[in-house]
Amino acid sequence: MDVFSFYQFDIVGHLISLIGIVVIVIACYFLFKPLNRIRDLCDVGYEEQLRLDKYGQSRRQLANEVRRRKKVGEIPPVYPNGWFVLCESDDIKDGQVRAVDALGEHFVVFRTEKGVASVLDAYCPHLGAHLGIGSRVVGDCIECPFHGWKFRGEDGQCMAIPYSAGKIPQSAKAKSWPCDELNGFILVWYHAEQEEPNWKAPLIPEIAAKKWTYGGRSEYRVNAHIQEIPENGSDIAHLDCLHGPSMLYGSDLKATLNGKRDNRIAPFLKHHWSVIWARDPEEKHVAVSKLHHEIRVFGRLSFISVEVEAKQIGPGLVYLTFTSPLFGRCILFESVTPVEPMVQRVLHRLYAPLMMKGPFGNLIVWGEAIMFERDIVIWNNKTFINKPILVSEDRAINLFRRWFQQFYSENSPLFNFQGKNEIVNW
Ligand code: FES
Ligand SMILES: [Fe+2]
């Protein structure tokens, strides 16, 4: 080998090593970066309509059309009483402000300069400016952008009117909403009778002690009544049918069905579930689904088994604790917040010990997301049946519906409370 070819060989070798390192770094970045999966109303559940469409409609046009034509059914009141997530803690830094519309209300959520989260009515009681748009935080107050009135986060009391020498009227007060911050969420208490909170969402000690930290999230908007989403936990019969086919099929139901029927793609992996749903005997606002989940190879050999405890806490929160001999314990929070009578914002947020983060954590968030998206396909297209025909194996659904009644009260708003039956276009 002459000197020239030796150097050429050396350069090629270095180049290959460099490319290898770059590929490994990129792969690690994607494997270890917490997953963040966001899907809007039109993103999930309209594959079949899209395949059949002959008019060249966009996914958004088509989804909106389906949504407008959908028969809503005889639904219960649209905003139940309880704690609801308005945003995630890391959405708002100290001194920052955010406008959030939910539960038929307009909220302004902000953090005082000392970091305390507060929730007030968004419309300024002076002349109606929006406190979430163009405003700023000063100390423990939010300052309205229109005339500079300052409202205290703690109780909404007006603390300063910059151009007035007189006494601040007692009535100069923005409505303050009970709020709480825990497990990475900022929550508001909604009650149609204006009752004060009669229960609290539990803080998870591992998160408070920073033993479990954030490991990924997903976010959805779903076209359904809020009750449909937690009802899923008591609907035992749908698990094998909808969630049985391997998650490798994704969330297109046509693909999962094909997989089941002719074993086309990945027939060797199948999910098996057994579930017990029960209301908590001590805390009446809590119900628990205990799930045993196995992934079986060729329908027999158990490949992975996971115990899942899904604690439904009030109408809008679920704490899913996963325990497996393979990867230990972690928690996935689910929150459901109605942003319109028939639109729910659903968040999932994983908290896990360090060892389980990265590829493991991402697999949990992704697997849960795929299964959840299969439910969304159903929810986005289904109607609500007030008096369903149930067989004895469906009895947990009845138990769930009776349990959920406690979150409605005399003045809980009905779907047509605004005097119109049509859903606003998005
Ligand atoms: S409208 Fe807010 S201070 Fe005037
Ligand atoms: Fe489901």
Give an overview of the whole structure.
With 426 residues, the protein is of the alpha+beta class. It has 2 domains: 35-69 and 202-412, Naphthalene 1,2-dioxygenase Alpha Subunit, Chain A, domain 1; 82-190, Rieske [2Fe-2S] iron-sulphur domain (Rieske Iron-sulfur Protein), CATH 2.102.10.10. It is built from 9 helices and 18 strands. It has an 8-stranded mixed sheet with strand order 1-12-18-17-16-15-14-13. It has a 4-stranded antiparallel sheet with strand order 6-7-8-9, with no helix packed on it. It has a 3-stranded antiparallel sheet with strand order 2-11-10, with no helix packed on it. A hairpin with a 2-residue loop joins strand 3 and strand 4. The longest helix is centred in the first third of the chain and has 30 residues, at 3-32. It is globular. Mean pLDDT is 90; it is low at 417-426. The structure holds FE2/S2 (inorganic) cluster and fe (ii) ion. Residues 124, 126-129, 144, 146-147, 149 line the site of FE2/S2 (inorganic) cluster. One of its GO terms (molecular function) is 2 iron, 2 sulfur cluster binding. Residues 83-188 form the Rieske domain. This is cholesterol 7-desaturase. It is found in: Membrane.
Helix proportion: 10-25%
Find the structural class using helix and strand composition: alpha+beta
What is the total tally of β strands? 18
Bound molecules: FE2/S2 (inorganic) cluster, fe (ii) ion
- H/E element string? HEHHEEEEEEEEEEHEHHHEEEEEEHH
**Total of domains:** 2
Radius of gyration: 25 Å
Specify the number of helices: 9
User: Mean pLDDT score, rounded?
Assistant: 90
User: Looking at CATH, which topology of the largest domain would you report?
Assistant: Naphthalene 1,2-dioxygenase Alpha Subunit, Chain A, domain 1
